[in-house]
Amino acid sequence: MVQMGDNLVVGCHCTADVKDCMLKVESLKYAEEACYNGILIIKAFSSGLEIGSCNWSITSPKGSIGYISSSVFSPVVAMSFNYKAFQRSDVILCSDFSSCNAPDKYDDDNNCSDPPGDDFSSSSDGDVNAEESAMLLSSDEYLEEMEKLDFICSCSMDSIKAGGSVLIPIGRLGIILQLLERFALALASEDMKVPIFVVSSVAEELMAFTNIIPEWLCNQLQDRLFSGQPLFTHMEMLKDGRLFLFPALHSLKLLKIWQEPCIVFCPHWSLRLGPVIHLLRRWSKDKNSLLVMEEGVDASLALLPFKPMEMKVIQCSFLSGMQLQKSHRLLKILQPKHVLFPEVLKQDDGPSETSFPFSYYSENKTLHIPYAKEDSELDIEIELACRLQYMTLKQKDMNVSRLKGELVVERGSYRLSLGNDKLMSSQTGPVLYFGKIDLNGFLMELQKKGMKFTVDEVKGDRGSHKAYLVHVLEPGEALIELREAQTLISTADENLASLISQAVCGVLDCI
Amino acid sequence: MGIECLVLGAGQEVGKSCVVVTINGKRIMFDCGMHMGYLDHRRYPEFSLIPNSQDFSDSISCIIITHFHLDHVGALPYFTEVCGYSGPIFMTYPTKALAPLMLEDYRKVMVDRRGEEEQFSSEHIVRCLKKVTAVDLKQTVQVDKDIQICAYYAGHVLGAAMFYVKVGNSAVVYTGDYNMTPDRHLGAAQIDRLQLDLVITESTYATTYRDSKYVREREFLKVVHKCVAGGGKVLIPTFALGRAQELCMLLHDYWERMNLQVPIYFSAGLTIQANMYYKILINWTSQKVKDTHATRNAFDFKNVISFDRSLINAPGPCVLFATPGMISGGFSLEVFRHWAPYEENLVTLPGYCVAGTIGHKLMSAKIPTQIQLDEDVQIDVRCQIHQLSFSPHTDAKGIMDLVKFLSPKHVILVHGEKPKMATLKEKIESELGIQCRYPANNETVCIPSTHHVKAGASDAFLQSCLCPNFKFFKTDFERGSDLDDDFPQGDECCSTVQPGEEGR
Known about the structure:
Oligomer: heterodimer
Strand content of chain B: 15-25%
CATH superfamily of the largest domain in chain B: Ribonuclease Z/Hydroxyacylglutathione hydrolase-like
Number of helices of chain A: 15
């Protein structure tokens, strides 16, 4: 079921555009490394919201960023939120807005299930975090979701028994799949033969697809694979004629087999598009029929064109993100160096225990966060590191070494290696002098070489220092001009020039 | 610290693959297989040679299983449930789904048919597989803070993977069994270019160079067709998984094309059940099979019927897939006894048969012949024998291609025959200049590992290293000087060359 944004008219695109666009998309598995430009490692981790939905992490040699959007700890179909992947991120960007409108509540229940595993390091987080994790993973959420689904199912059965039909314009795949399973069970236990229709242009593809993606599902469903059952019962339901998939309401075959009461899944949740409009018109006066909507839509507005409504309506909210309380617990476990919250959360109290620095971001505004460290990480191969010969600088408290090697940028890290030149000699290239000339030291060097000289200072317009001029008188005549970043030796005597040059080198650092 | 490689199985032989690699102090077991040719203690790897073998959970950081064949996973339930290993175990999703079928089938053959004392029970298999973490291809898994693993597609059988393991700065790839050319249902092996200290590769066909697969497939179809046209019965002993599906796809397509009505049977529920797994796990097959799944799942064999014992002596031609592949016992042996004495029948043999099995005896036999089953049972073999010459293993060219592509510092050969391994070793060392070893079972090989020194690098340093078109850096410091302007001026900072903007 294709969900469309609110701006239906603006920027509508055609199928070719969609196909063209998708050709440019590189798909990734969860936790697969995509390397951008050698230097950024981009990874996706399951967020639990829907099949395939994810949070992202970007790692560079200077630090890492995690982007966490709406995430569910124990979803009913999708693989659960892999939060452990974000442990020790430098910056975490929180963009889960579900906490803005949902009231907070949490229980201290310790029924924990395993999170999806990418990190098997045992108990490195300490006892406090173990307790926190248990709280995050409590199965309450899961049970609550299951309860909601059961409720929808039992209401639907009541309607059907009374001779009404059930209309479900919900776009969330996970919910549809779960409801299908429940309906199959409930109908079988009541021994009722009521057809279920899924009417959508992508229904067929979607149902075939969901049965071949065990790697993207929650543990409960994966266990079905490992115990030799099909992932979902809908394949069987299709085969024995309990479930029918049609691209549109006017499909000829659909009209032939149509019977009521029935259960119909179809788009669109806004009740302004797709088959749902026709079916609502048909059933809105039937007090035995039932419409199941997701919360978040303004029901009174959405139903306005269909008034007067005699059809029963249930509105149900499903988990679509973290509760505020939980997100704070989560951040406590993850221990990021900096957290970014959406500005809308500012009105709340903010994180109660500020164990981490945080700031708020807002729409269309760039936020600068300084790197946690100034330098990039660099790996030097041990063979190369062993060859480095350090020397101490005269003018700074610092060791330096000349090095010849290859800088490799690969899989998000810098590495210095010997390269192909494995047999490099310890001294390569000309000696390099650097540093500032200290006048007194330089004069002493000249004296040592038995020279006689006079010194003048050249001043600028406002009396600022510009240069020293050293006139050498013996053993020959020469002029040495010492500037901040340049020394000029002028003489007609080559020997004298080289003597003075030696004196200059004597006061400089060299490598 | 270096990399220590203890070969516990598949050293200079094929069978019970098991290599224990210690990298920078972390110990990883690759595969935990059993030897199908032995019934005594030699069927399992010699686990006691692992250092600190009184507590395997402590001495081994993790176990990685490459695919579901028994010579790669057969000893796992024994190792976890009897030897007591309780640490993490990794395999791909299909391997986790299919390995228990193979294990259970083997256990049944051993206990129910041969009446042997069981080495592990069904319960053991279930408990063992519960400890397994399934991984997806290319998914990086952080086992602990030092060990990172990643699976790559290996072809060979459904779910087969090569595994990359990185501990600190040292990295190893263990290939398991792989295929460098795509077959009817699987794609070719695929891996990234990686920085590696060691590649441990299989070498089943270390000296074989194969031509096109299609010629050999046609040959197979021809003999099968000829046999059934003459009213004969065809016995195709196979592993339940992998080869069975590949051959079945081949026959199925041929049957449809030629409009043949001769029944194709699968023995027992095992392979039927396996087909269901193949349907769910279709993402792990070749691109071509994947692309058509929505319209017709390639593993929906509508001409295939399940076989019943009463059909063994039924009149008329048929094709039967039966396990096990090397006719070492079980149903394929039972059918073989009935069908072998008749000239019009045909038995196909897999490309490789372990010494000691009937399959192995038939490979070298001249028909007609007699085969001794045990002391008092002997069978006259007059049927035709056809050995399948296509194999899900890479040939020598494939091995060379992979090693060249990965360019590791060292290569270790396993899963092959000693003389052929020796030839391949020479080739790898002379042509690729990479050191190569092929240790025997229970031998340890040590190679140096890579270490890096961590340092911090300033942006200026990285920039000047990365930008090849550097210029001498000019500061604005001396702008307006009345001295020589064209003279390059040294900057006072340590980095003497910097990527400069255009000079004045």
